[in-house]
């Protein structure tokens, strides 16, 4: 297994690379997209790209496509937020994993890449569910994507508004305002901590 690591997140990508090497992978590092593309064109092929979320993933995906280079991208970041995962996947990543990763997570990623019939999957089941949701929302309006992401996150938090707002990276007031609009539109809104469902039956 050959990995090309692009970028750096406070050295945490180095941890991911070290774990991959422990699992038998060969790892090459590039600090930016230009360096990575030069390495790929010069014959340093890779089975997987592990990319810092701060990198312009859409630009990387477009360059790979233009160069007819077909390598899956896994985005990595220190934020374990659904919105970060959604943004990475919309930009062209196959998966998003929060950093720092652990040994089991890296092993699962490498195993999935070795067997293309399997989906790459986050070790965190909740994050995996949100990633699958993000993939299903491609092609829909931003308002619809936002609504479904908020409601799915709230459902995952068992109706806890504060926890959901923290995960989504928005204020509790913004979340409550959006939920009030959804309920007024007849959308089923998960109740706060076991209360009654608002909106359509």
Write the layout of secondary structure elements.
Elements: E1 2-6, H1 12-22, E2 26-30, H2 33-41, E3 48-52, H3 57-66, E4 73-77, H4 82-91, E5 95-98, H5 103-114, H6 125-136, H7 142-156, H8 161-168, H9 172-184
Parallel strand pairs: 1-2, 1-3, 3-4, 4-5
Helix pairs in contact: 4-6, 6-7, 7-8, 8-9
Which features does this protein show?
9 helices; 2 domains; 201 residues; alpha/beta
Structure characterization notes:
This protein has a 5-stranded parallel beta sheet, sandwiched between helices. It has helices spanning 12-22, 33-41, 57-66, 82-91, 103-114, 125-136, 142-156, 161-168, 172-184; strands at residues 2-6, 26-30, 48-52, 73-77, 95-98. The protein starts with a strand and ends in a 17-residue tail after the last helix. With 201 residues, the protein is of the alpha/beta class. The mean pLDDT is 77. The radius of gyration is 19 Å and the shape is elongated. Helix 4 packs across helix 6 and helix 8 (161-168) crosses helix 9 (172-184). 50% of the residues lie in helices and 12% in strands.
The CATH class of the largest domain: Alpha Beta
Per DSSP, what share of the residues sits in E-state strands of 2 or more residues? 5-15%
Widest sheet: strand ordering:
2-1-3-4-5
Number of strands: 5
Characterize the biggest β-sheet. 5 strands, parallel
CATH topology description of the largest domain: Rossmann fold
- Total separate domains: 2
Q: In terms of structural class, how would the helical and strand content be classed?
A: alpha/beta
CATH architecture call of the largest domain: 3-Layer(aba) Sandwich
Query: How far is the first residue's CA from the last residue's CA?
Result: 51 Å
CATH superfamily of the largest domain: Response regulator
